[in-house]
Design goal:
single chain; alpha/beta; 10 helices
Length: about 240
Amino acid sequence: MNRNFTNIIRFGMDECLPAIIRDSKWFMYPFMVYAFKGTNVKKHMEFKSYAWRLSDQEFSKIYNEVECIGNDRDTDLNTACIEMIAQALQMPNGGAIALKVLDVGCGRGFLAEKIIKLGHEVEGCDALDSVQIPKMKYTQALAEKLPYADQSFDVVVCTHTLEHVRNLDLAISELKRVAKTKLIIVVPKQRPFYYTLDLHLQFFPYERALTDRIGLDSFLCKDVGGDWYYEASLGLSG
């Protein structure tokens, strides 16, 4: 199922069901069996209770080994967000100057490949052990510990990653630290239930749940197909 359809399903479950039913372990169990393909279901249902105690290596191992329906789609991005990112990364000066772009939480590289095709120089990082994308340098790293120098990228893109981090403030600080001119973030517009069909730890049901935590002055943030699309100009943020 693509992101556009799963966002419709999530809206129906999260917004239309009474919380006492929606966040019931017994109600959610069959959905979790489906979402995680019947593997380690009980472990994944309780992920929010123990994720904070894991080492970085243990945390990354879960993402390398998890079996879920999300692995069956090319990307977690919906179509409209992909188009907005592409528009934000149009080549400046008539295509004469390529940008240096970092894709934090690049997954298997769907978005990185799109950005490379726009003519930009792209590096990617993720919890995954290895990601093989032609023309992209990959580094295994968590968003809270980016192994890059200050302002080393013109644009930093981070899509469907902040909902997975354990230290949100540190991850945001790192994104801002390595970006020079622009920061683009996409996260799900999701209510904070305990039993979710994913391994999410952070939730952004309202715009300010994201924008206040980022703390920049010059930004665009809007609901795009059930996800928050955030774009900030660091040059004007003060």
